[in-house]
Design goal:
- This protein has 276 residues and is of the alpha/beta class.
- The protein has a single domain (4-273), classed as TIM Barrel.
- It is built from 9 helices and 8 strands.
- It has helices at 20-29, 42-54, 75-85, 108-125, 137-147, 163-171, 231-242, 246-261, 270-273, and strands at residues 4-9, 32-37, 59-63, 91-100, 129-134, 154-156, 175-178, 203-205.
- Strands 1-2-3-4-5-6-7-8 form an 8-stranded parallel sheet.
- Strand 6 (154-156), helix 6 and strand 7 (175-178) form a beta-alpha-beta unit.
- Helix 2 (42-54) runs parallel beside helix 3 (75-85).
- It starts with a strand and ends with a helix.
Length: 276
């Protein structure tokens, strides 16, 4: 069974509260050896770090403020707290940060200020950025381009955009995270011909659980909750689109995740799975 790393799962989501130990155990059985827990606001970043402490052989985290939450409170104290959280060894990236003009849950000007503040923070602390972009490519690219030379690494999480955007992000030497969006024939079909354009060493896999349950899963789960155990389905669909063996794809995406997030090779253990 190939080893996989899920670079982005929202394990602090309330839907995992009742059975997180079983979720981790299922991930283990599916070959998912490490999981990145996404921090999307201050409370979520704190919770992700606390959860990682309970899963020391499994989890790493991000700490940041998603564009949806960029207007939740004063930015200065929030950035200061993210900087403090980033000192913890389990925090391997700043984010989730970026721009989202699809929902516009926060004013666009506020999103841009918060995004640039987190790019500056990532440069200062020497951590990668974990990025979100939806319907905001031009402004996102302009800000990222301004800071990319100072960043150790950048991950465009849950890439769903077009070929022009993909080329621009690859030109900036970004990593590209692919989720179960590609398994959705209604809205992800455009990604299929783009996947071979992503070089080995730049491609990463993720679930974005509990969101984006792969529609190609058979048998279909009873609920709609996604979880890290379903990452092999993303692997299967991406490998088919690239004309690549699943084992080869697993090997290079796992190696890329470890290199990008500065992870040590580890494996899920029965002790870790039972700790939560």
């Amino acid at each position: 069974m190939p080893e996989l790393i899920d670079i982005g799962a929202n394990l602090t989501h309330e839907s995992f509260a009742a059975d997180l130990a079983q979720v981790i155990a299922r991930a283990q059985a599916a070959g998912v050896v490490q999981i990145g827990i996404t921090g999307a606001d201050l409370a979520g970043s704190r919770a992700a770090l606390a959860l990682a402490a309970d899963l020391p052989d499994v989890a790493f985290t991000t700490a940041g403020i998603h564009p949806h939450h960029s207007a939740d409170g004063p930015l200065g104290p929030a950035i200061a707290e993210i900087a403090e959280l980033a000192q913890a060894p389990a925090v391997r990236a700043i984010g989730e940060t970026g721009l989202d003009y699809h929902r516009d849950f926060a004013p666009r000007s506020t999103q841009r200020v918060a995004f640039e503040a987190q790019l500056e923070l990532a440069a200062a602390v020497g951590l990668p950025v974990f990025l979100h972009q939806r319907d905001a490519h031009a402004d996102f690219l302009a800000l990222l381009s301004r800071w990319r030379h100072r960043l150790v690494d950048a991950v465009v999480h849950c890439f769903t955009a077009d070929g022009e955007a993909l080329a621009a992000y690859l030109d900036l030497d970004c990593h590209i995270g692919i989720t179960g969006w590609v398994c959705d024939e209604r809205r992800g079909a455009h990604l299929v011909p783009l996947l071979p354009r992503i070089p080995a060493g730049r491609l990463l896999l993720e679930t974005d659980a509990p969101y984006l349950l792969p529609r190609t899963l058979r048998p279909r789960p009873r609920g709609r909750r996604n979880e890290p155990a379903y990452l092999p389905e993303v692997l299967r669909v991406v490998a088919a689109a690239r004309g690549e063996a699943e084992a080869a794809l697993a090997a290079h995406t796992t190696a890329t995740a470890r290199r990008c997030f500065r992870l040590q090779p580890q494996a899920l253990s029965a002790t870790s799975a039972g700790a939560v």
